[in-house]
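Structure ticket #2291
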Amino acid sequence: MTGHDVAFVLGGGGVLGAGEVGMLRALLEAGITPDLVVGTSVGALNGAFLAADPSVETTVRLAELWRQMSADGGVFSGSVAQRVGRAVRSRTHLHGRGPLRQLLADNLTVERIEDLAVPFQCVAASIERAAEHWFTEGSLSDAVMASAAVPGLLAPVQIGDEHFLDGGLVNSIPVSRAVELGARTVYVLQVGRIERPLTAPTRPWEVALVAFEIARRHRFASDMARLPDDVVVHVLPNGDDPPEGLAALRYRDLRRVARRVERAHEATADYLAGLP
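Resolution: structure written out below.
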């Protein structure tokens, strides 16, 4: 496939994904626009809004959406008792999909992937096929919901006869997909965890988090090692100083959203200004 020379690749990363909004703003302010957007999990959410309208104004609206998500009643709201109650009833997840579904319904201006202003794809993990599945057409909100269905937090999303979980399980920073689709200049928007050392888990619930993090980093490192010689990849800095070790993986710590956006914007703007 040709015609997608410049790609924005938006990785997964939960609440740290707010930093991607600042990176997007810096790219657009520098006059860099994508021919292709690919995303995973929270990167699929950010990427969908960008692909609908690749403008600085969109990043301003995205920053406001992240502020709303960080407020009481956001996507991962609920008391401990409510979360435990849902887990007991469902036996699979802590949170309902309703708040995220409503956020997308209220704010996405495009219903179908093929109607977006910029070509967009996002990835989810097919349970039945144990494989990555790329959404290239159809309902945009369904695709984003599937890509962001974090195991244990949200229920799997059924589309047709298949059930899908978070795309980070199979391709958390999908550089390889962008290159496969013809991109030769790739801007990677990542949340800053890939270079930070992991520590061994000390609590039962940390084991799965660490295992997931090992898998996502291994895939990205492998993809970067196999890049063709004619592909240039810019891994953008997020400028943040997230908590050390396992604290960086906490999914409900939304208190620093505004700071993450601004620091990522500043760091990426400085990086882009230094390019030849």
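Closing remark: Residues 76-95, 245-253 have pLDDT under 50 and may be disordered.
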